[in-house]
Amino acid sequence: MLRTAIRFALPLLIACGGGSANISVGEMPQGGSYHGVWQSPQYGNMHLCVSGSHVVGDYQKDERRGTIQGTIQGDVLRFQWEEKREMVVGRPTITRGRGWFRLKIGQDEDQYFEGEWGHDDAETGGGPWNGVKMRRGTPDRCMGGGSSGGEDDGYGDDDYGDEDYDDGGDSYDDGGEAGDDGGDSGDYGEDLEGLDEI
Question: Which pairing describes strands 54-61 and 111-119: parallel, antiparallel, or unpaired?
Answer without folding.
Answer: unpaired
